[in-house]
Amino acid sequence: MLVVNGMSLSHKASSFANAGIVVAVEPADLSGDELEGIRFQEDLERKAFALGGGAGRAPAQTAQAFLDGKPELELPASSYRPGLTAADLTGLFPSWILNPLREALERFDTVMPGFIREGLLIAPETRTSCPVQAVRLADGSVPGFPGLYLIGEGAGWAGGIVSSAVDAIRICDGVS
Predict the structure, then answer these.
(1) What pTM did the predictor assign?
(2) Is the pLDDT assigned to residue 153 strictly greater than 80?
(3) 3-state secondary structure 32-51
């Protein structure tokens, strides 16, 4: 299986961006089975490993080729190690992920002009949040365990560093 994640050098001195575009996967998108999120995540990671050609290489495509629906022939430079394999990412994701991703890229290009022309998509980053969401009571505690509060990404209530912090603050504010 293969999963990627952005990396920032300690001095933020790289010429490459550490950026991610995430499409939310909601329970309604899946079968309703409580473990379907894990199976979906693992399936994407297996497909990505195969699409990347193995050995930890990640499948990648320029944003322009992705939006144009054209196969990628040559990839620009990247800081991703152990390397990239030119791939058609539309074969990796279902349409209910592809369509919002296309919309996000087009919207992103209006805020950051040139992103579509210069952007490189490296996939998949499937670990932004836990694929199983912990059940919480209205006060944020775990049912049957008074005083236990599961917060952040690992509890399935956040999708990154900032949203994990916001989740923790929200729960702590409610407890105090």
Answers:
(1) 0.81
(2) no
(3) CCCCHHHHHHHHHHHHHHHH
